[in-house]
């Protein structure tokens, strides 16, 4: 698997990872893919977002909507039937900032923040995910975001979606190794 160095998430501190991508705009279009259920479901998960600070965000994961690849046995139920999680919106600043507390992914809850800014004719997306309590969760979440952001880029550029399950385990292993290097 050939991945450009700038595509990897960066460990900020213990339990936090940040990703940055330059995406085709306009910024309102990228915002729509973050907050509108039908658009978000094409690269990450569906679910309505109540458009205000303190509002509820539903996160309905059904990976068969984003990839036709056969999932590993442990992910089959989420892939085929779906899984509902949610959270509380902590920042709603269209079209620049969307953040939420994610409930249901593990203990403790975690915090996700998307920040969009104009970068010439592109849109800079910065994703930060904090409060990832264990090294295994950090590696799993990092590889997941890496793949989901690749699918977002595929959606925005009109490319066919890249692999997901076929590269997930190798990428998770790579993130675990990268974390060891960051701690050294």
Task: Please give a handful of descriptors for the protein shown.
184 residues, alpha+beta, Alpha-D-Glucose-1,6-Bisphosphate, Chain A, domain 4, seven-stranded antiparallel beta sheet, 7 strands, Activator of Hsp90 ATPase homologue 1/2-like C-terminal domain-containing protein, ASHA1/2-like_C
Give the class from helix and strand content and strand pairing: alpha+beta
Q: Give the number of helices.
A: 5
SSE pattern, N- to C-terminal: EEHHEHEEEEHH
Corresponding CATH architecture: 2-Layer Sandwich
* Distance between the ends: 25 Å
Quick one: CATH superfamily? START domain
Biggest beta sheet summary: 7 strands, antiparallel
% residues in beta strands:
25-35%
Strand order within the widest beta sheet = 1-2-7-6-5-4-3
What is the CATH class designation?
Alpha Beta
Coarse shape: globular
Residue share in helix: 25-40%
Overall radius of gyration: 15 Å
Q: List segments where confidence is low: pLDDT < 50 over at least 5 consecutive residues.
A: none
Count up the domains. 1
What would your notes on this structure say?
With 184 residues, this protein is an alpha+beta fold. The chain has a single domain, classed as Alpha-D-Glucose-1,6-Bisphosphate, Chain A, domain 4. Helix content is 33%, strand content 30%. It is built from five helices and seven strands. Strands 1-2-7-6-5-4-3 form a seven-stranded antiparallel sheet. Strand 6 and strand 7 form a beta hairpin. Helix 4 packs across helix 5. The longest helix is centred in the C-terminal third of the chain and has 23 residues. Belongs to the AHA1 family.
């Amino acid at each position: 698997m050939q991945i450009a160095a700038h595509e990897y998430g960066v460990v900020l501190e213990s339990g936090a990872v940040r990703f940055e991508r330059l995406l085709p705009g306009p910024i309102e279009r990228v915002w729509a893919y973050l907050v509108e259920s039908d658009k978000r479901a094409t690269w990450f998960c569906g679910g309505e977002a109540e458009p205000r600070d303190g509002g509820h965000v539903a996160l309905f994961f059904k990976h068969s909507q984003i990839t036709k690849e056969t999932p590993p046995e442990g992910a089959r139920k989420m892939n085929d039937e779906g899984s509902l999680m949610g959270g509380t919106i902590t920042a709603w600043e269209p079209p620049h900032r969307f953040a939420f507390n994610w409930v249901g992914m593990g203990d403790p809850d975690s915090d996700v923040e998307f920040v969009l800014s104009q970068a010439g004719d592109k849109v800079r997306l910065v994703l930060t995910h904090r409060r990832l309590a264990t090294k295994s969760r950090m590696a799993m979440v990092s590889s997941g975001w890496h793949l989901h952001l690749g699918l977002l880029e595929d959606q925005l550029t009109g490319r066919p979606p890249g692999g997901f399950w076929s590269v997930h385990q190798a990428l998770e292993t790579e993130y675990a190794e990268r974390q060891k290097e960051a701690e050294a």
